[in-house]
Task: structure prediction
Amino acid sequence: MTQVDQPPHYGPAAVPPSGQPQSGQPPYGQPSPGPLPVPPSPGPLQAPPPPRGPGVVPPFPAPPTEGRRRRIGLGLGIGAGVLVLACGGAVAALAGLGVVMTNALNEQAQVVIGDYLDDVKAKRFGEAYDSLCAQTRATLSRAEFTSEAQTGKPIQSWQVGDLDLASVDLAVPVDVTYADGGSGKLNAYLGQDRETGQFQVCSVEE
Result:
């Protein structure tokens, strides 16, 4: 069989009949395969959005402030009460101490004056002179004292009052009853022993 050479074709390529795919292309109606999709890279974790509603609820409830204020107020009130009681107790203690000291001084003064008047009444003039304060003994001899005591009105009884702490010379009022039945008001003036601090009679006079 003799092969007949086809003459060269000039012009556009022949289009295949409808419904037949061209060589190297997918059939009509099917998409051509493209590049595979790349999965997205994971980003930083984010907190879930707050719930919808009036305001955002915090993850942990805030501590109550009303109870704390009440506790603080209660503590301050208790502290103030304790302070008032402490101050009041201190004032009461000082007042009580002052009363005790005053009573002790009055008792000491009454004993000293009573002992002195006992010696004079019993004519123990030497012992009465020795119980006098140093200031009086420095200006009055034993003989002078004995002479004055013997010539004075004898005292039968007496009532010693309270010591006047406001007076500079420590005066103590003494109500006396004389042997003849008369009465009078005398003042006993006290001094203090420099060594013992005890009261001593300096003089008893009108």
About this structure: The two ends are 188 Å apart (CA to CA). Residues 113 and 201 are 6 Å apart (CA to CA).
